[in-house]
Fold this protein.
Amino acid sequence: MDSPTQARRLFVGDLHGCLPELDALLAKFAFRPGIDRLFSVGDVVGKGPDVPGTLRRLKELGAHAVLGNHDFALLQAARQMQAGRKPKHADYPASLGEERDEWIAYLSAWPFYLELPDIILTHAGLEPGKSHPAAMDPRILMQIRTWDGSGQDLNRDGDPPWFECIHPGKIIVFGHWAKRGLIDLPGFKGLDTGCVYGGKLTGWCPEENIFLQVEAARAYAPVHYN
Ligand SMILES: [Mn+2]
């Protein structure tokens, strides 16, 4: 029997500010702060109802996270605005509220990937043809869905999914592909099930090998898979 205090890990899909659903997922898992560990696949910001509240919860729980393309876009927008330019996602830094500087510092510390003894965590996926994520293009780690052989077009109908082009020795946990939905293959766990679009928030626990899901309370954003 497992000891009741054995640590479990919970990997959670793209949050996009969906704090009520994150809290519901943590409750469903019976997450124990200080014992269990929480990991986010990134895309915590953008589109959704409570971005600062979601960041607050991750920070309170000591969560580990990797940068998603929207988190990266926020950091880029903040830098561009500081330089007096008008970025594409000018609304993203404003969505952080009064603790804007705290959240920019928090997000700035997130890596493009995390490597654990048994798992690699990345927002979108890995770059085929390279052996280790340290050697991979961060744009690809944050954006890949399909592989065209060169990394130019990362999302093209007819090209194979990146996870059919790579045979890593560890389980890859990722998000970013809400249109495709839950991916449960032996070496690949894709957790973006479109919560912010009115889908579900998905978590995966490797210790119990279970997926947990909660329904979105509502659709917070029109479906726009970017
Ligand atoms: Mn994404």
In short: The CA atoms of residues 132 and 194 lie 29 Å apart. Residues 69-82 form the longest helix (14 residues). The mean pLDDT is 96. The pocket of manganese (II) ion is lined by residues 43, 68-70, 123, 176 (CB under 6 Å).
